[in-house]
Design brief:
The protein has helices spanning about 1-10, 35-40, 65-75, 85-90, 150-160, and strands at about 15, 50-55, 125-130, 135-140. It has one domain: Glutaredoxin. It starts with a helix and ends in a 9-residue tail after the last helix. The protein has five helices and four strands. By secondary structure, it is α+β, with helices and mostly antiparallel strands. Pfam families: GSHPx (PF00255).
Length: about 170
Amino acid sequence: MNALASKFGDGFSILAFPCNQFGHQTQEDNSEILSMLKHVRPGGGFTPAAQVTMFEKVNVNGATAHPLFAWLRSQILLPMDSMASVHEAGMPDPLKMVSARASDGNSTLVLWTPVTRSDIAWNFEKFLIDGDGMCVKRYSQFYPTIDIAADIEKLLQADEAEGVVKPTTP
């Protein structure tokens, strides 16, 4: 995330929305999220780059999903990345939405209802939005965040070809 922010500079924004719907992994209060990132996960003094806006926790699935995520999921129903990224991440069946966790007795628990085909499967699923606010691509949690750079560059080149003026990057 910070690498993308650094690569594209001020003409690029990242919006981060913590969510506790995936294994209850984000149980801290909204006021504790930045401290948790800095000291626990990922830790090591991590702080989001200036181009990253951290929002309060939201639900992304189910009847209580934030309207932004209901809209994003309606625009692109499933992640569009290749199955190679899924297999490289160790997921043997790319059609599974969530894998059973041995630490939980090989069970799964979905923490929202209704469950739909377009649900976000896990933390770090990503959406690419163009300068006009259109959702242009959806990536699974397995897709390396830095690899989105190629798609961002394509969007920026298309804008340049159309004569759209964008801020220069460092």
